[in-house]
Amino acid sequence: MGIKMAGILSNLRNTVIAGIVLTILMIVIVGGMTGEGLAMGHAWGAFFLRWLHVLSGVMWIGLLWYFNFVQIPNMPNIPDEQKPAIGKVIAPAALFWFRWGAMATIVTGLLLAWANGYLMEAITIGGIEGFAVGKHVAIGIGMWLGTIMWFNVWFVIWPNQKRALGIVEAEADVKAASARTAMLFSRTNTMLSIPMLYAMVSAQNIF
Predict the structure, then answer these.
(1) Residues 106, 181: one domain?
(2) Whose CA is closest to 189, among 141, 155, 152, 154?
(3) Are 118 and 136 in contact (CB under 8 A)?
(4) Whole-angstrom Cα distance, residue 80 to residue 95?
């Protein structure tokens, strides 16, 4: 049993598959225990989109905070001979999941708003209702903050990181300037993530 578990946990793909299998088992067991089963209707579909949205958001914001709370502050403490391992191996891999986590979050968020029928209300931050529905105002603010953050990831942070990491050829002074720009916009996203998460959570739990 221990050897089988080690085989699962030592391979990331197998670990993720096992997590999905456990999730399916949990759904079946809970449905059986409560007698409610699994109604594959609109409500479940909207919930599934929300689950994917949260999973994507955890990947995105988790990596954003990893960069800003762990990697960037500790880079000066890493010996120069070890820094290429971060810049050539760790950072490119983290940035891959970072930017695609951002893309998945924005896409699933828009699909979720559309499926639940409040896409236009959110886009206008509740303006078409006279700002009378607090949930739509909150979710709209969260969506716009998330959209700004997504734009920063794809059109500012990633292009500058490609130059800073040497993925795209650039002069030394350009690399330095690009690294600083990427850092500043990453910090901007960290700042925006705090009210963005408040807006998203409050829309579901306060209003």
Answers:
(1) yes
(2) 152
(3) yes
(4) 21
If one counts every other C-beta atom within 10 angstroms of the C-beta of residue 101, the result is 21
* 112/151 same-domain check: yes
Do 115 and 19 sit in the same domain of this protein? no
Q: Taking phi first (over 0 means left), then psi (-120 to 50 degrees means alpha), and beta for anything else, what does residue 25 get? A: alpha
Give the mean pLDDT of 176-205. 96
The total domain count for the chain is 2
Three-state secondary-structure class, residue 81? coil
What confidence tier does 190 reach under pLDDT thresholds 50, 70, 90?
A: very high
- Domain of residue 17, residue span: 1-38
Instruction: Determine the Cα–Cα distance for residues 156 and 142; give it in Å rounded to an integer.
Output: 20
Q: What are phi and psi for residue 203, nearest 5 degrees? A: -60, -30
Distance from C-alpha of 163 to C-alpha of 158, rounded to nearest angstrom = 9
Task: Count CB-CB contacts under 10 A for residue 92.
Answer: 15
